[in-house]
Amino acid sequence: MSENSSLFFEGKFITRFNVLQQKMQHIKAFVFDWDGVFNNGHKNYEGSNSFSEVDSFGITMMRFSYYLQHGKHAPVAVITGEQNKASFYFAQREHYNHIFYRVGHKEAALRFFCEQHQLQPSEVLFVFDDVLDLSAAAIAGVRILVQHACNSLFADYAVRKNLVDYITSNDGNNGALREATELYMFANNNFEETIDQRVAFSKQFQTFISQRNELVTNFHTMQNNSIISPNSTNKIVGIIPARYASTRFPGKPLIDIQGKTMIQRVYEQAKKSLLQKVVVATDDERIYDHVVSFGGEAVMTAAHHASGTDRCFDALQQLDEKFDYVVNIQGDEPLINPQQINELVEVLKSGEVELATQMVGVNDYETLFNVGEVKIELNKNNEALCFSRSVIPFMKGVDEKEWHLHHHYYRHVGMYAYRVGVLDAITKLPVSSLENAESLEQMRWLENGFKIKCVETKYESHCVDTPEDVEAILHLL
């Protein structure tokens, strides 16, 4: 198809037509925002709204076009920040694969969708219209912005940030999706074939409709940014980051503690938990060889990682199996209780959690005002509002030595759990101002809208940070 084919479309090409055509030919799935895309964004007092049958049939033709090219159905999803009867009805009627509702972080929903269908985000065509969609647009392969967003600074921002490829000439609920469909079919050189087959109501179209109607719509919610998938069975891997080059205690993973190295003790304790798999992630061949020698599993990671979170993601990418969650187990706690790991595993089973960590209550003045202890402020759902080395909240009019008697204070226990798609996302985030101020990586996640579930544990942590800490461990054995 020639460059002049773009003259058929009255929308604005942000990406040159021939480049967009190449991107379109790699698309394997279709994802749409709801409000402002299927409709004009207006809702009545019950929160319901209407949608255009012209746009609805347009998407059917988009899917049929893909079917003619590949002989199989492309996955389709709706991602919406709202929840209403219209979106439920439509997704069920059209037999879409997924609908995500009440979504605050659309990138996480898009990554989850891609995980479910073994796709890369670059293989997704995404149609959107507003600010909340930008995190998903940033990773999608083809980004189509609906026309009514064009008269705003937002559209200018999306263009400048290279977050859009094409802007439709039509509004939501008034042909925008039909326009996106025709652009997709033209780009794949099968516009006429798709129309001809539909007009003839061919055997291929009847088969397509029949198979489409066998698809089951999966509803997911992302309440508080956490994807809930009622059909998911979560597989969880424990990863133990282990560095040799510790500043305060070089080589500590290999120190002997009554006949076993510290890393062996951590590994064996973790294996007693509910985790399906346990792996040591290290950048040192001495640690790798040692773990393999006692029958453990290890992977070599890059040496440059700034945190255990980054090392966990590196290790995860090297595993042959697919997992839903990763638990980051501290490699310097040789006495970790398997039940403490299980406490974190249990909260992941519902599939509601995006990120999780643990905490213990603070019951004395000395611990509360120790700047080495990170304190947590919580919302009513036991999700972190803030982590700080300072004491939060400030108790006005109360003697500092009695603050712990007037408020439930908690300190952080540094074991984390991550949904796999979220782990991918947070490792790509730039360092934040609050992270720099507190020297706490989890503040970066909070600043970017992720929710961290905090689970109270009854088990104390016994870390080995210095050679002197080994003596304390020996007394506890």
Largest sheet: 9 strands, mixed
Task: Give a count of the beta strands, DSSP E runs of length 2 or more.
Answer: 19
Structural class: alpha/beta
Q: Uncertain spans, ≥5 residues at pLDDT below 50?
A: 44-48
The H-level CATH homologous superfamily of the largest domain, spelled out, is: Spore Coat Polysaccharide Biosynthesis Protein SpsA, Chain A
Counting structural domains, the number is: 2
Kindly state the percentage of residues in helix.
25-40%
Mean pLDDT: 87
Shape: elongated
> What percent strand?
15-25%
**How many helical stretches?**
18
CATH topology name of the largest domain, in short, is Spore Coat Polysaccharide Biosynthesis Protein SpsA, Chain A
Structural write-up:
The structure is a single chain. The chain is of the alpha/beta class. It has two domains: 3-225, 3-Layer(aba) Sandwich (Rossmann fold); 236-476, Spore Coat Polysaccharide Biosynthesis Protein SpsA, Chain A (Alpha-Beta Complex). It is 34% helix and 18% strand. It contains 18 helices and 19 strands. Strands 9, 12, 13, 14, 15, 16, 17, 18 and 19 form a nine-stranded mixed sheet that branches. Strand 6, helix 6 (153-160) and strand 7 form a beta-alpha-beta unit. Helix 2 packs parallel to helix 7 (176-187), helix 2 crosses helix 8 (191-199) and helix 4 (106-116) crosses helix 15 (420-426). The radius of gyration is 26 Å and the shape is elongated. The N and C termini lie far apart (74 Å). The relative contact order is 0.10. Residues 44-48 have low confidence and may be disordered.
